[in-house]
Structures are given as structure tokens and as C-alpha cells.
Amino acid sequence: MIRVLDDPGYAELQEENTWLRGSLREARRGQESAERMALMCMVLFSIAGTLLALTWGGIIVV
User: How far apart are the C-alpha atoms of 62 and 55, rounded to whole Å?
Assistant: First the structure.
């Protein structure tokens, strides 16, 4: 068996695994935040578009 000189030890691998888990958790939180923001924008634009269409249609008179 050929042993690589830069072969990481168990502690290094455990540290890397912990770091990757943290990064994954942070990325998931960022994704959830972006999805929530997109949903809020979609609702806001839907309401604004409906009100604009009703105003242009003469149903809502300002």
C-alpha cells in the first residue's frame, strides 16, 4: 500500500467535516431566507398588480 505523505489525520477530517456541516447549515438558512423574500415580493407584486388593474378598469375610483 502506498501511503501519501499529506494524508490527513482523523482529527483533521473531523474538523473539516464540522466546518462543512456549518457551511451547509448556513447555506440552507440563506436559501430559506431568499425563498421567504421571493414569496413576500410575489405576494406584494400580486396585490399591487390587482389594485392597479382594478383602478385602471374603473372598479376602484380614487
Answer: 8
CA nearest to 31, candidates 23, 43, 19: 23
Residue 41, all three cell numbers: 415580493
Q: What is the pTM of this model?
A: 0.67
Phi/psi at 33 (5° precision): -65, -45
C-alpha grid cell, residue 34: 431568499
pLDDT tens column, 11-61: 899 999 999 999 999 999 999 999 999 999 999 999 999 999 999 999 988
